[in-house]
Structures are given as C-alpha cells and as structure tokens.
Amino acid sequence: MHSIRTKIMAVTIAAVLTSILALGGLGILSIRKDSDQTALEKMNLISENMQQRLDAYFTSQQLSVDMAGRIAKDSLKGLNFMLFSTSLSPEEQRELDAGIAAHCEAVEHAFSAIAGNTDGVVTYYYCVNAELGSNEHGFFWSRMGGGDFVKQADLNSNDLDINDLEHTTWYYTPLKVGGPTWVGPYPAHYLNEALTLSYVVPIYYSGFLIGVMGMDILFETITQQLDTLHVYDTGHVYLMERNGDILYHPQFPRGTTLAVLGDKVFDSEILKHSSNGNELIRYTLNGVEKQLSFSTLRNKMKIGVTVPVSEITASQRRLTLVILMVAIAILAVFSVIILVLVRALTRPLLNLASASQQLSDGNYDVRLDYDGQDEVGTLTRTFQQMRDHLRYYIDDLNSRVYTDAMTGIRNKGAFTIRTNQLNNEIEKGEKPPEFGFILFDCNNLKKINDQYGHERGDIYLKTACQLICKVFAHSPVFRLGGDEFCVILLQDDYQKREELIGLFDRMARVRNSADVKPWEKISVAHGLAVFQPGEDQSADHVLSRADKAMYEHKNRSRHGAV
C-alpha cells in the first residue's frame, strides 16, 4: 500500500510537469496586474495628498477673503447709494468721502485680524473703484520677505490698464466673472513681478462696483511644496493648467503645451475630469514611456505626478525573472525539490497561516531595523524618510483645522504645532524655554454617557473645560481628544503652577459640594511636568512625565488617597 507521501509525490510530479508553465504564465500576468494597480494607487495617493495639502492653503485664503467680503458688504448698508449716480455738491462729496473712508476703515480693521490667521498669505488689499469719485482708494498690506504685515501705498484703480491683463487680472477678471474667483499665477506689478496666485472678490452695492479685495500667495510657496516630494527614482510632481499646459515643471518651461512635447502624449480630454481615478494613463515622451496621475485643486489648477514606467515595473521585472529561474530549476531537479517540499510542507503552511493571521488582525506597520552603511542601508533610510514625509504631510493636512468643535478651544492639531515650536526652541538651545504641561483626564465620562446620554456627557466635558480655561486663563488650553485636555504652562502661569493646581482642585470641590446634576460636577485627574534643560531632549519627554503623573493622580483618587 502506497503512503500518502508517495501518492502526493506522484501526483505532484505529474502536476508540476503539466502545469508549471501555465501557472508560471498566470503568475507573471497576475504580478503585472497587481504591480500596475499598486503603482496607480500609490501615485494617486501622492497626488491626492498634495492636493489636500495645497487646498488647505487655498481654502484658508478663500474663506478669509469671503469673510472679509461679507463684512465689507455689511458695512455699506447705511451708505446713500444716490451719491454714486449724480453729480455731487461739495457737501455730498464730503458725505461720499466720509462714507467710503469709514467703510474702508471697518474693512481694514477686520481684514487685518483675518489675514494674520491665514496660512501662506503675503498680501491683503482692497482697491476702491476710482469711478465712484471718492478720494479714498482703499488699503494695501504686505509681508514680502517674512515678518509682520506692513502697510504699503494704496492700489489706485486709475493706474490699472485693462489691456494689460497679464498684470491687472487681479482687478478686472473678477469684474468679468461677476463674483469671487481665483486668478494666476501672474506677475504682480505691486510685488516686483513675483509670480502670484490671488483670490479676489468684487464688492457691489446697489449695483455699483465699490472695489475689489483679495489675498495673495506667492507661486513659489506652492512649487516649494512640490519640490519636497520624491517619487520613485526620477519621478516628479508638477502643476498644469486645466488643458494640460505646464505651469510648473522641473524639466519644461512654464507655458509648454502638450503639442510642443511631441511623441505620443496622453489624450488631453481626460483632463476635463477632476482626477484620473482608476484609469491608468501611460504615454511616451522623448522616447520614454511614462505613467501619470493627476488631481484638481480648488483653484482649478491640476497636480500631475509622473514616473517612468521602467521604474514602476522594475520590481515586477525582477520578480518575473525570479519566477522564470525558479521554474527552470524546478524542471531540472523537480523530483528532489518535491521530496524536500513534501517533508517540510507543514513549516511553510504554519508560516503562511501566521502571516495571514497578522494581516487579518490589521498589523500593517512597517518596521525597518536595518542600519547598515551599504546600499540596502541607504535604501532603508530613504524609505524611512519617504514614510516620515508622507506621515508629516498627512499630519500637516489634518492640522489645518485648529479648533475643537464641541468646546471651542484648540484641538490636537494645534497642540502638535505648538509642541513642534517648543521642540524647535529646545533644539536651538540659545535660551532654554520655560514651560510645563498639565494633562487633565475627566473621570466617569463613560458612566455619564451610559446613564444620562451623550448630550449630558458633552455638558460634563464642557463644564470641566470651562473650569480649566478659567483657572489657567493665561495659558493655551487644548483638547487632545475624548476626555483629555492639556494646558501648556507659560510665563506667570508657569511660575504659579502649584498655586493654580490647588485653586483648580478647590474650585472643583466647591462646585461638587453644591446641589448640581451628576453631569455638572467636575471629577478630573491631572498630572504636571515641567521642562528640565539638560534632561529633557524634547517636549515629548515632558508630556510623557505629565501623562505618568496624571495616571498616578487618577489611581490615588480611585483609592481615596487624594
């Protein structure tokens, strides 16, 4: 009677002889398909991440100008619109000038507060329509070169040539469109011909154009973001117009069209879509086959990510070669190999089961511990840098919203930015900063949510947050998520930290002793840690100690020690 092993060997040998070529061919086709899909998803992700990062700039700028525009329109409601349509007496002229001047002053005051909290903006301005007959021209503030905004000479619409749209598009394009719009990049005459992107809003009152207001971002601010990305070995990221004409490219000058590029270029009709989606776009440029992914920005510009197909398929070719070599080896010595495989069948099956279980459990972390000084070490470090860059870009995009929706205080994204600033100060080492962290953790939140509902739980968190903000009124307070808050102690609050913690506990006890609902009481564990120069290498070290102290306080509270 033949053993199962013998039967398996006999069947396997026969199966190998008849199917290895077919399986090898199917494997190569499957690898090619998976490689193409993986490359498409990776390039789409790079394009989408950069789109979200840049759109955060544009969204911030657009919301700021729209807000200022609403304020401007509201400030015009009391103005006599008849002053715009008749020849004016001296008294009426004075009334018009006074009205426009008061309007500009209100808008300038509001705009300055808004611009200071808008990322990437280098100018904000309001150019009053000179045809109104007023002596008031508006205002113009700039911070070219960094620093604070500095007031500049007013932009006089009388000096703008409608035939020179290359320089005056910021004023005349929104008038043509009849509403808010993005313009650029264009050489801004008021910024020494620097290429500029602007979001501009025309302000009308009773059908009369009052003026145009807007904000500017330097085009190089956007291109610098693109230059930080490295795609495969020689791939790059660039900007296109809606029709595919080049706005920024590391190899081609601005204005280069698809027709000029020659060879077999991709069909420009696809650019009418917001992105390439799941469509694989490949084309030939200067004899090199390339792959493209793109997405559309808020201002209608398009981000393109392009890589030579040879770099994308390099691993595919290597794996195909390995498959062919293994197939040849199996055909040559299949009898011996099959014997070894059958004897060791259980070991690879167990390894496969273990790997499958880890994948099923959601273990997607990539750990790279190799730190050699050879080519593999260089590749490992390069991969780590790319991973860290992608993580940073995602964190950076998420941190664009700084306010916690429920409590109204700063959120975790704002906290990350603030701790990064502290880390920069620590690294400079010129003058070690004085700061500390107090971590707060609200007890019993789950119990309140379960017994009284999540609305009562929200009241409980807001009540605790209000007391924290009241006691630590001179330090920034952050909600890190869920029931956890953090105070960054600075200046006077830093010096009086122990006194303030005592005050917080006393006020909490006073409130809890009153006849209030369970969700209106305050039960908060807290932990304090301060920065120790020479011992703490970063703000994270301080935060870790504060977290440990907070949990120690929580444990003591549970056992009635405090």
Task: List strands and helices in order, with pairings.
Blueprint: H1 4-75, H2 90-115, E1 123-128, E2 138-142, E3 150-151, H3 165-177, E4 181-188, E5 194-205, E6 208-218, H4 219-227, E7 236-240, E8 246-248, H5 258-261, E9 281-285, E10 288-296, E11 302-308, H6 309-312, H7 314-343, H8 346-360, H9 375-398, H10 412-428, E12 436-442, H11 445-452, H12 454-471, E13 477-481, E14 484-489, H13 491-495, H14 497-513, E15 524-530, H15 539-558
Antiparallel strand pairs: 1-2, 1-6, 2-3, 4-5, 5-6, 7-8, 7-11, 9-10, 10-11, 12-14, 12-15, 13-14
What do these coordinates show?
The protein has helices spanning 4-75, 90-115, 165-177, 219-227, 258-261, 309-312, 314-343, 346-360, 375-398, 412-428, 445-452, 454-471, 491-495, 497-513, 539-558, and strands spanning 123-128, 138-142, 150-151, 181-188, 194-205, 208-218, 236-240, 246-248, 281-285, 288-296, 302-308, 436-442, 477-481, 484-489, 524-530. With 562 residues, the chain is an alpha+beta fold. Among the domains are: 76-214, Beta-Lactamase (2-Layer Sandwich); 222-312, Beta-Lactamase (2-Layer Sandwich), CATH 3.30.450; 401-558, Alpha-Beta Plaits (2-Layer Sandwich), CATH 3.30.70.270. The protein has a 6-stranded antiparallel beta sheet, with helices on both faces. The chain has a 5-stranded antiparallel beta sheet with strand order 8-7-11-10-9. α1 packs antiparallel against α7 (314-343) and α1 (4-75) packs across α9 (375-398). The longest helix is centred in the first third of the chain and has 72 residues, at 4-75.
